[in-house]
Amino acid sequence: MKYIFPILFLTFTIGFSQSNSEELNFDTKYYNAVDKWIAFPKKVADTSYSFGFIYLDDTAGFTYNYESKFIKTNSGLKKLSREFESGLKARLTENTIDVAVLSDSQVSQLGLPKVPEWHSIYKADSTKVSYLKNIGYHYNHVGASNLALKPLKKAYSINPHYTGLEFELSYAYNALHDFTKAIPILEEAIKNDPKNFLFYRELGFALKNIDQNAKAEKIYKTGMELTDDKFQKSEMAINMAQSYYLSGNQKKFDEWAEITRKYT
């Protein structure tokens, strides 16, 4: 019986120590850490980690607001004094390394609010169609179309023909291979703006991916007539040639291969 208390005390102490020394897992893409406190990996020679808050500026894109540095101790994270008072911001790009999202416990250890006071400035227009469309654009632009859908769908329910919105929403559905949802959006978009070749490009892509090659071909041809951009023409031609190749239609493949060569 005399060993029970020391064992229980040791178990409790280890458990407590572990709960205050959570691991930092640097496995999150910056666009999956929006509106979160995060830390960047430290260099081998460093003893501290840089940390701050990631937010999405609807005009400028994904942004990192530097807060300060911290060190890891046995009792948790310890915030260090800032080197300077004024804020430091950095725009995040596809070259940004993965970050660690800080847990609620780690945020508390650092004496931080759940969300910085200044953050509300960037949410002031969050119900406007222009804001929602831009947010969707930024997510689409970095390949996170799954995150683009929510703001884009909300904007579409308010004003479906807002400039650029139908393209971004259909692009997101196509990127996620949800082609049947992209098609009706693009058909309505074309009715409203029949001279926008981008709608034809996205609609042709959706149609060819559900094996409607004849319809896709007609749509692509119309889209190609509406633009002088050879790159866009070649992209549509390549897509059509690929579809006929995969379907085994040699005659049509040869036809579109020749069109591709014309614009490549």
Overview of the molecule:
The chain is an alpha+beta fold. Helices cover 50% and strands 14% of the residues. The chain has ten helices and six strands, in the order H-E-E-E-E-E-E-H-H-H-H-H-H-H-H-H. Strands 1, 2, 3, 4, 5 and 6 form a six-stranded antiparallel β-sheet that branches. Helix 3 packs antiparallel against helix 4, helix 7 (197-208) packs parallel to helix 9 and helix 9 runs antiparallel to helix 10. The longest helix is centred in the last third of the chain and has 18 residues, at 230-247.
Walk me through the topology.
Elements (H helix, E strand, L loop, with lengths): L3 H16 L16 E4 L9 E9 L3 E13 L2 E4 L8 E4 L8 E2 L2 H6 L19 H13 L3 H14 L6 H11 L3 H14 L4 H12 L4 H13 L4 H18 L2 H14 L1
Antiparallel strand pairs: 1-2, 1-6, 2-3, 3-4, 3-5
